[in-house]
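Quick illustration for those who missed Monday's session on complexes.
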Amino acid sequence: MGIFDTVRFDPPRACANCETAITEVQTKVFEPGLREYHVGDLVQGSPILSGVIREELYCPGCAGSDHRKPQFVWFSLWHTLLVGVYDTPQEAEARLQEVDRAELLNYLARHQQAALTWHDRFSRLYGELQNYQDYLRASPEEQQDRENMRFFRIREILATDDPLAALVSSNKPQNPEDETEVGNEGL
Ligand SMILES: [Zn+2]
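Prediction with zinc ion bound:
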């Protein structure tokens, strides 16, 4: 399909033909860049500032079946902010009229929290890698001194048979969304 973006559904939608849970739709209507969007995200390269865009839904459960009717979703975009995904253009249009400031604040808070989480995660990984580099460059005498303050932060990692593997493992992302990213690393 080439380059596309993915819009994730939370909660999943049920296929109108076979009831299969559909968790996402791939789309090229924005500026395709393999980005993943949720409701509450600003989309990159939207062809419209505010309005409604139709996209065809792909169902893994009944794709290829002769009896399947094509089904669509409508994205509601408000100043390029994805504010909803709907089954009908009427619902998507109506949504545009009711965007309020409290919701916008919630979206902002969620993004700020996510940025903080990534910042903390990066800082920890960077700090531990830096300590490990110091350790590798240290003299054998210094390395023997497990209580050395320079290595104190990674002393449990250094105690393992394979410190680098332990360091990578201890910085592995925890939440399900990030596990997907970990799983895709080899692709
Ligand atoms: Zn289906």
